[in-house]
Specification:
Order of helices and strands: HHHHHHHHHHHHHEEHHHHHHHH
Largest sheet: 2 strands, antiparallel
Strand content: under 5%
Distance between the termini: 24 Å
Number of helices: 21
Radius of gyration: 24 Å
Number of strands: 2
Helix content: over 70%
Shape: globular
Length: 451
C-alpha cells in the first residue's frame, strides 16, 4: 500500500514505528493493567495462579496421595482465594509440576504470584527471542518490533501473564528446541521440547511430527528429558503417585464433559473439539461427523507433507514446525486460549521460511494474518461468549491452511529442481571419464536455497 504523504506526511521508518508501538504498549496496556492488577490483589483475587500455588502447597504440606484428591484441592484453593461465584475445577497437572511450584509455595501467596509473573515473562521472552533470532538475525529494529507485538498479544499479556498461567513454559521450550535444532544440537533440542510435557495435549502432534520427519535424535532428547522429570517426581513422591495421577485423569475427563454439557467455559477454548460444543444447540451427530471429516483430512494432509519434508532445506524444516504448532492448537482435545500463545512461534518460523524462499506475496499474507489475529484477540472471547464461535479458531485455521499450502509448494519445487538436476547430471556423466564421474558424484543434488 502507498503511504498517503499528502495527508500524513513522510512515511515513518522502523525506528519511529518502534517508538510508537512501545509507547502505546506501556501507556495503553501496561499502566492500566498494573493498576487493575494491584486492585485485584488487594481484593484477594489470585486468578489461575491459585491452582499452581495450591498444588505446590499440597506437595509441601500433605501426604502425597492427597495431591490428587479433588476435595483437598478445592479446600486449599478456597483458602487462598475464596470463590463467591462459581467453583474451582480439578488441577490435572503431572506430579513434577506440583514439585516445581512447591518452591513458590514456600513464600507468601502474593509474593509468589509476582515472582511467577517475572519468571513467566522471562520464559516467554526467551522463547520468542530464540525464534526471532532465527528470522531477523542482524535486524535489531525488526526484532524489537516483533517483541513488542508479541508482548501485546492478549492471550499472553492477560490470560497467561496476569492470569498466572504457565503457557510461557511451552513457548520457551519450542523456541529453544527450534533454535538448537538449527545449530544441529538435536538431543538438546529434544530436551528443550520435553518442557511441554507439563501438558501432554500440547504434544499430540509434535511427537508424531518428530517421527514423520525422522528427527530421531530430537526424539531421543525428548525421551531423555521426559524420563528425567518422571524420575525426579518418583524419587520425591514414590511410585504410587503415578497410580493416583492416572485415577485423577480419569476423574478429570468425566467431570470436564458429560454428554453435550460441559463444566468448562467453551468460549475460553480455541480447538475444534471445544468449538463444536460451543455452537448453539450443542454438538450434533452431523456436527460430529463434519468435525471428524475435517480432522481426518487435515491430519492426512499434514502427515503427508511432514513425511515428504524430512530431507528438505531449512525453509521446509521451519514450515514443518510452524504447521505442526498451528494445527496442534486446532486438532486437539481441549486448548484454552492461553495456550494459543504458541502461535507466535509458528508465525515467526513461517516468516523465517518465507525469507529463505524470498516469497514477498506470501510474506505479506502471513504478516496480515498475524496483525489481524493480534487485533481480533482483544475481543475474541466476547464474540465467542455471545455468538458461540471463536474468531481465533477461524484465523488459526486460515494460518494452518496457508502454512501447509506453502510447504506443499516448496516440496513440489524441490522435487522439480531435483529431477531437473538429476537429468542434467546424468546426461553430463555419460560423456565423462571414470575419474570425472567419481569427483562429480560427491556434489549436492539439490540447490542450497530455493528461490
Amino acid at each position: 500500500m502507498r503511504w498517503p504523504k499528502g495527508i500524513l506526511g513522510p512515511a515513518p521508518g522502523l525506528k519511529e514505528i518502534n517508538l510508537i508501538c512501545w509507547g502505546l504498549f506501556f501507556l495503553v496496556l501496561v499502566a492500566p493493567l498494573s493498576v487493575l492488577l494491584g486492585m485485584q490483589l488487594r481484593a484477594g483475587k489470585g486468578f489461575d495462579f491459585v491452582y499452581f500455588y495450591g498444588i505446590g502447597r499440597l506437595a509441601n504440606d500433605h501426604a502425597v496421595v492427597n495431591l490428587y484428591n479433588y476435595d483437598q484441592q478445592v479446600r486449599i484453593f478456597n483458602e487462598l482465594s475464596p470463590l463467591h461465584d462459581g467453583f474451582y475445577g480439578p488441577s490435572p497437572y503431572p506430579p513434577y509440576v506440583a514439585l516445581f511450584f512447591s518452591l513458590f509455595a514456600r513464600i507468601p501467596f502474593k509474593l509468589a504470584y509476582l515472582v511467577w509473573m517475572a519468571v513467566s515473562l522471562t520464559l516467554y521472552l526467551i522463547g520468542v527471542s530464540a525464534a526471532v533470532r532465527q528470522v531477523f538475525q542482524e535486524e535489531r529494529l525488526k526484532r524489537s518490533l516483533v517483541l513488542c507485538l508479541s508482548l501485546a498479544f492478549p492471550p499472553f499479556l492477560w490470560t497467561t501473564l496476569v492470569n498466572g498461567q504457565i503457557a510461557s513454559i511451552a513457548v520457551c521450550g519450542v523456541g529453544l528446541a527450534t533454535l538448537l535444532e538449527r545449530k544441529q544440537r538435536f538431543v538438546l533440542s529434544g530436551i528443550a521440547l520435553s518442557m511441554l510435557s507439563y501438558k501432554p495435549t500440547l504434544l499430540l502432534l509434535l511427537i508424531p511430527m518428530l517421527l514423520l520427519t525422522r528427527r530421531l535424535k530430537t526424539l531421543l532428547g525428548f525421551v531423555t528429558g521426559f524420563a528425567g522429570m518422571v524420575l525426579i517426581a518418583t524419587l520425591f513422591d514414590g511410585i504410587e503417585i503415578w497410580t493416583a495421577y492416572a485415577h485423577f485423569l480419569r476423574f478429570f475427563s468425566q467431570v470436564s464433559r458429560i454428554g453435550n454439557h460441559t463444566h468448562l467455559q467453551d468460549w475460553q477454548f480455541i480447538d475444534f473439539n471445544s468449538h463444536s460444543y460451543a455452537i448453539a444447540g450443542g454438538r450434533s451427530a452431523v456436527g460430529l461427523a463434519v468435525l471428524i471429516g475435517i480432522g481426518a483430512v487435515a491430519v492426512g494432509w499434514l502427515a503427508t507433507l511432514l513425511w515428504k519434508s524430512a530431507n528438505g532445506q531449512e525453509a521446509e524444516q521451519f514450515l514443518a514446525w510452524a504447521a505442526t504448532l498451528t494445527w496442534t492448537l486446532l486438532l486437539n482435545i481441549y486448548v484454552p486460549i492461553y495456550d494459543s500463545i504458541l502461535v507466535t512461534i509458528a508465525v515467526l518460523l513461517t516468516l523465517g521460511a518465507l525469507r529463505e524462499l524470498n516469497w514477498a506475496n506470501a510474506t505479506n499474507l502471513v504478516v496480515l494474518l498475524a496483525l489481524v489475529t493480534l487485533v481480533v484477540a482483544w475481543f475474541t472471547e466476547a464474540v465467542a461468549k455471545t455468538y458461540g464461535f471463536q474468531p481465533l479458531t477461524i484465523l488459526f485455521l486460515a494460518l494452518g491452511i496457508v502454512q501447509c499450502s506453502i510447504l506443499h509448494r516448496v516440496i513440489r519445487q524441490r522435487a522439480v529442481h531435483g529431477q531437473a538436476q538429476f537429468s542434467t547430471t546424468t546426461s553430463a556423466k555419460s560423456d565423462r571419464s571414470p575419474s570425472a564421474f567419481s569427483l562429480s558424484s560427491s556434489k549436492a543434488v539439490f540447490p542450497a536455497r530455493l528461490t
